[in-house]
Amino acid sequence: xxxxxxxxxxxxxxxxxxxxxxxxxxxxxxxxxxxxxxxxxxxxxxxxxxxxxxxxxxxxxxxxxxxxxxxxxxxxxxxxxxxxxxxxxxxxxxxxxxxxxxxxxxxxxxxxxxxxxxxxxxxxxxxxxxxxxxxxxxxxxxxxxxxxxxxxxxxxxxxxxxxxxxxxxxxxxxxxxxxxxxxxxxxxxxxxxxxxxxxxxxxxxxxxxxxxxxxxxxxxxxxxxxxxxxxxxxxxxxxxxxxxxxxxxxxxxxxxxxxxxxxxxxxxxxxxxxxxxxxxxxxxxxxxxxxxxxxxxxxxxxxxxxxxxxxxxxxxxxxxxxxxxxxxxxxxxxxxxxxxxxxxxxxxxxxxxxxxxxxxxxxxxxxxxxxxxxxxxxxxxxxxxxxxxxxxxxxxxxxxxxxxxxxxxxxxxxxxxxxxxxxxxxxxxxxxxxxxxxxxxxxxxxxxxxxxxxx
Length: 455
Ligand code: 5AD
Ligand code: SF4
Description:
It is found in: Cytoplasm. This protein has helices spanning 25-40, 63-77, 94-107, 123-131, 145-149, 177-180, 189-201, 229-237, 257-265, 282-287, 294-307, 326-339, 366-390, and strands at 3-6, 16-21, 44-45, 53-58, 89-93, 113-115, 134-138, 159-163, 165-166, 185-186, 206-210, 218-220, 226-228, 244-248, 272-274, 312-319, 343-348, 395-403, 409-413, 419-423, 432-440, 444-452. The protein is α/β, with parallel strands linked by helices. The longest helix has 25 residues, at 366-390.
């Protein structure tokens, strides 16, 4: 339900908009859909300095992310449009909105709209409300409504996100997601196939399936059979014009044999798996309520590698979870040594209000967290560098996504999700090129173009 309170000086109905995304790729997808919706209403996208409407699509996962949002709310609250000095309409969307909604309205009078991640299809109504003098607040978690209401036609760049599943029922004890995104809900098979086809018609050559627990996706196919993510991937594999499929983020417990098998025989499924483990100590994993062990994680990775030996493994780590001892941390280091990651994200534990871990005894001292994070990141960085070096001399296809720093340079992704720089006149964004990798750094590789590959 959209609630409203009267404001003193109503702002004009916006003609231009700017969406600023924070946090995960699900927010990027949501931000794109908001933009589609505004465009369908006749609004045009504009710079942050001149937009009539600024949407901050926020992230609440760690304290730092939420702090960034608050300082940005302060900054845009004082903002005047460069063109005419008027104050833009300001909407706060996403997970900070969901977690701290009413508080934002109270603390920041310049914010006109607060809208949770499941309610942004109601933005047009809320914007009209503000123009009529009412501030808007909507934090309902109604499930799938927003996907039904949003515009179906999609224009796309060469790479596109497709949210297949939202929310989380896992309740890891450190995590806000089950509270900000709600329960696990899967979108329907037919909606996803239709949207994937529309994305390919609109220009996408690569689709990344998104979900907080993407591999928990379940549904029914057109014949009424119960299906899982691997079946969806196999159906997308049959869409002509689509060259690559990825999915992110997965939970070890939902890594089924069928999904593992797909890595062995689905041609378009890229050799990359992001599988967060968080920690290598079973005691800490239990306290985190992860419901897998270090060993069961190792066995999943072994199984995937058996079927797809070149697969790039990526993960997420938290150091300094309450009660983590030196020995527990060494278990994490040992696990990392065993797995040998191609890339990874690692964070200091950040207590999130309302989560069970925030009030656990034995919170780890900041200095110890710093030292552990530094050691972990050094090891992960070294592994990433070595993985990048391991592809030198190999030929592979690169899907060009954006311009590089230098004239004529373009950047794309290798099958293993490495940023790859190529330099050759005549190429353009969206081209798929055959490249031989000739140089590797910590965060990217460089290739010589051999020829334009068939998409
Ligand atoms: N503190 C630190 N990191 C966290 N993550 C989630 N919650 C927290 C927290 N409270 C990390 C996890 C997750 C990633 C998206 O963010 O590693 O996989
Ligand atoms: Fe958060 Fe755990 Fe759910 Fe991932 S699986 S979104 S870390 S609660």
